[in-house]
């Protein structure tokens, strides 16, 4: 049986094909390594940005919580305590107004209501005292 190509020619062609395949594989491997390096770098950048955003959000949450506590919760708690004292008949307390927001307006209304209650209570007591003498 006769072959169209002799063994040495076939071996040279196969060796050339293998070497070409290895060269292509090396180039592809280098490109893949460059791509992987770029991906790792991008991943590090994204992780850093994600941590920075998380820290920023947590700090904002903390400061908002503190602001809410100081500007909303504590004034309302003070008003609640004053209301309980006034409910017992102690009209000597007034709310200190430190701002011009809605809580401060509530405090002003509370002080006016306390003044009116104190005045009405004194009038009722005086009327009772006058009625006793007659």
UniProtKB/TrEMBL annotation:
It catalyses: ATP + protein L-histidine = ADP + protein N-phospho-L-histidine. The chain crosses the membrane at residues 45-64. Residues 70-122 form the HAMP domain. It is found in: Cell membrane. Gene3D superfamilies: 6.10.340.10. GO terms for cellular component: plasma membrane. Its EC number is 2.7.13.3. Its main location: membrane. Pfam families: HAMP. Keywords: ATP-binding, Cell membrane, Kinase, Membrane, Nucleotide-binding, Phosphoprotein, Transferase, Transmembrane, Transmembrane helix, Two-component regulatory system. One of its GO terms (molecular function) is phosphorelay sensor kinase activity. It is a multi-pass membrane protein. The keyword Cell inner membrane does not apply. This is histidine kinase. It comes from Candidatus Thiomargarita nelsonii.
